[in-house]
Write a structure and sequence with these properties.
Jelly Rolls, RNA demethylase ALKBH5, 10-stranded antiparallel β-sheet, alpha+beta, mRNA N6-methyladenosine dioxygenase activity, metal ion binding, AlkB-like_sf, 2 domains, elongated, iron, 8-stranded antiparallel β-sheet, Lipocalin
Length: 345
């Protein structure tokens, strides 16, 4: 494994001549260089092939709507983002005001990503075990770009790690993204396929970084960004967020015995556990059981309601004799489902 740093004024430099740089700019470039660490060949060719095959499978899952959480995939022109573990608000108007999305808004970190991408970094002592709890996969196609930014200081601990797959790219620091490219980069860092870049100090905190369309050297580049959420990071509470009293009312309201409209499946709710019973054709008079215990589901309280299996129940769906569950993932399930309270409950 080769470990190299960038070269602000060497072959990666694409700004004005050295003598044209101000002293402040020279000092900034030196500080950026000192705060970066590049593991240029961290993942070998075979490892890259394996990770890239999983990335292709991830894209197919996204296109088929197979992710469970509603905010896992975000698609714009020339770029698709996949959030795992912890997602967050971002984009124009959010800088400095970013917030974590409520738990359950994005899918958990996939096992293949933990095994193939994160664990090798842990094994080499680059990251502590269990440190990564937020992963963003950026899939850039030709013409795509990473807007100039600083990873939110109030959301994520340092360092920030980014791994590169498919084609190489160049990450630029302190550059403007206007059409005239008025401000050239203070520093440029080449990112080969299979590399891991560690940003800390000045490069992570004091200067913006990004990737312009001309910094992508191929038809497709995927970056996997690994981060750790700060303990007291603010969380976005969407309209309709339940307060503790409303959440308690929901939990109390679902207790008891329920059935589906066809009376083929019955649900017994005790606290946060749901016993699912299926109707059998046996004759109770002959000692045969009329029901079969087919599953146990868990009620999971969330900021916006209760999650059970593939449904979400909010206050709009709570009635004395009926529960109207909404689909948890509207991209996957088009309609919800109904439970009807049994007589005598």
């Amino acid at each position: 494994m080769e470990v190299i740093g960038g070269d602000a004024l060497g072959p990666l430099w694409d700004g004005p001549p050295r003598e044209a740089m101000s002293q402040d700019r020279r000092e900034l470039a030196a500080k950026i260089a000192m705060s970066l660490k590049l593991f240029a060949k961290f993942y070998g060719s075979q490892e890259c092939d394996q990770i890239e095959a999983w990335l292709d499978e991830m894209v197919l899952r996204g296109e088929a709507g197979l992710f469970e959480a509603p905010r896992t995939v975000d698609v714009v022109s020339h770029r698709t983002k996949y959030f795992f573990g912890n997602g967050y608000t971002y984009g124009q108007g959010c800088q400095g005001k970013e917030e974590l999305l409520p738990l359950g808004s994005v899918d958990a970190i996939p096992l293949w990503l933990t095994t193939l991408v994160i664990q090798p970094l842990v094994s080499k002592g680059i990251l502590p075990q269990g440190w990564v709890d937020s992963v963003v996969v950026n899939d850039y196609r030709s013409g795509g770009s990473i807007v100039s930014h600083v990873d939110p200081l109030h959301l994520f601990a340092r360092p920030i790690l980014t791994a590169t797959f498919f084609c190489p790219a160049k990450l630029v620091f302190g550059a403007s993204f206007d059409p005239a490219r008025t401000v050239p980069p203070a520093y440029s860092q080449m990112l080969p396929r299979g590399s891991v870049l560690v940003l800390d100090g000045t490069s992570a905190n004091d200067v913006t970084h990004g990737m312009r369309p001309e910094d992508l050297f191929g038809a497709r580049r995927v970056s996997i960004v690994l981060r750790h959420v700060l303990d007291h990071a603010p969380t976005y509470l969407p309209p309709g967020t339940l307060n503790p009293r409303e959440r308690s009312r929901l939990i109390r309201g679902v207790q008891g015995r329920w059935r589906d409209p066809a009376s083929k499946t019955f649900f017994i709710v005790r606290q946060l556990s749901v016993a699912v019973l299926s109707v059998l054709r046996g004759d109770p008079d002959e000692g045969e059981e009329p029901f079969s215990h087919s599953a146990t589901w868990r009620l999971t309280p969330r900021e916006d309601g209760l999650v059970c299996n593939t449904g979400l129940l909010d206050l709009d769906g709570l009635f004395p004799q009926r529960l109207q569950w909404k689909p948890l993932n509207p991209n996957h399930e088009k309609i919800g489902f109904t439970w009807i309270r049994l007589h005598g409950d």
